[in-house]
Write a structure and sequence with these properties.
The protein has 354 residues and is of the alpha/beta class. 42% of the residues lie in helices and 18% in strands. Strand 11 and strand 12 form a beta hairpin. The structure holds 3-isopropylmalic acid and magnesium ion. The site of 3-isopropylmalic acid (IPM) has 7 residues, from helix 4.
Length: 354
């Protein structure tokens, strides 16, 4: 198949991890005779340095034209002056809004070989297979902001259609999985959460009567993720709760460097990115874990290009590498030898070609 894929490396370790993911995409393309056109664009701090804007017009055009976009990470100390007018993170939010990618899928499936890399006991992690669906284009991230010298506010607002469409994705995913959804809110305090909870009850009763729906308060959900992670199937929640809970959930896999994501809109076009940030502390050292980004390529192949076989092959290649004991520093178990970003990419490519 022919496809235009935008690649936005961004900042910090972003260029390092996307370079490896790009090699994987190229390998899948040439092995399957697919004409993937890979076109790079600027986003975040790199875009601010080059153009003055975190989400330049050329990048917007690329994102709107492309069948899918792969992104590394944005942000870093160089651009984090609180008084700065242009911020890297705003570029990412503008990209998500421009593409309309309201449903952010973050699968949390610890690899058995990495059980010793997680701070949780191995028996607690056994059998964990969670799909977190984070609402991505609404809520407090996008509400009106105000600031003067001594006060500030961020508005959190949601409309019924915004809530319904992301809950519907959760329902559709749940019927193909184990048929359970935990809807996470803070309905004991927040008005937006009370709307969310009633919309969830109505929508599941009407459209997904066979799905078992549970409502959980976000503070309790944070606890249950550690005390009974294997009980969860699909978790669906609003934008900021999803941001926080997925960093927490990533530790079930051993490292935030392992988690991929797919952000989908009403069509099949999507934005794919690891859930980690730009990790300025290790940027430029060639030691970042590229697995989250490579696994995001698998999600891209599956959700935007319909290439399920290729997607599964990429996931199997990553699994095989982990089974063989190869580890970047973040997932190393005491004393074992570690490899760098490029070697990890190379190892995945070798399994793909085999
Ligand atoms: C994420 C990140 C972003 C977010 C930042 C970089 C704006 O933390 O994708 O989880 O908060 O959405
Ligand atoms: Mg985050």
């Amino acid at each position: 198949m022919a496809a235009l894929i935008g690649i936005l490396p961004g900042d910090g370790i972003g260029p390092e991890v996307t370079a490896q993911a790009r090699r994987v995409l190229e390998a899948v393309g040439s092995a399957g005779g697919h004409a993937f056109e890979l076109r790079e664009g600027l986003i975040g701090g790199a875009a601010i340095d080059a153009t003055g804007k975190a989400f330049p017009e050329a990048t917007r055009q690329l994102a709107l034209q492309a069948d899918a976009v792969l992104l590394g990470a944005v942000g870093g100390p160089k651009w984090s002056d609180p008084a700065a007018r242009e911020r890297p993170e705003q570029g990412l939010l503008d990209l998500r809004a421009a593409m309309g990618v309201y449903a952010n899928l973050r699968p949390v499936r610890p690899h058995p070989a990495l059980a010793d890399a997680s701070p949780l006991k191995a028996e607690r992690i056994a059998g964990v297979d969670i799909l977190v669906i984070r609402e991505l284009t609404g809520g407090i991230y996008f509400g009106r902001k105000q600031r003067d010298a001594d006060s500030a506010s961020d508005l959190c607002s949601y409309t019924r259609p915004e809530i319904e469409r992301v809950l519907r994705v959760a329902g559709q995913m749940a019927v193909r999985r184990r048929g359970r959804v935990a809807s996470v809110d803070k309905a004991n305090v927040l008005e937006t959460s009370r709307l969310w909870r009633s919309v969830a009850s109505e929508l599941f009763a009407r459209e997904f009567p066979t799905v078992q729906l549970e409502h959980l308060l976000v503070d309790a959900a944070a606890m249950h993720l550690l005390s009974r992670p294997a009980d969860f199937d699909v978790i669906v929640t609003e934008n900021m709760f999803g941001d926080i809970l997925t960093d927490e959930a990533s530790m079930l896999t051993g490292s935030i460097g392992m988690l991929p994501s797919a952000s989908l809109n009403a069509e099949s076009r999507g934005l794919y990115e690891p859930i980690h940030g730009s990790a300025p502390d290790i940027a430029g050292q060639g030691i970042a874990n590229p697995c989250g980004t490579i696994l995001s390529v698998a999600m891209l192949l599956r959700h935007s290009l319909g290439l399920e076989t290729e997607a599964a092959r990429v996931e199997q290649a990553v699994s095989a590498v982990l089974d063989a004991g190869l580890r970047t520093r973040d997932i190393a178990a005491g004393g074992s030898q570690t490899i760098g970003t490029a070697q990890m990419g190379e190892a995945v490519l070798a399994r793909l070609r085999a």
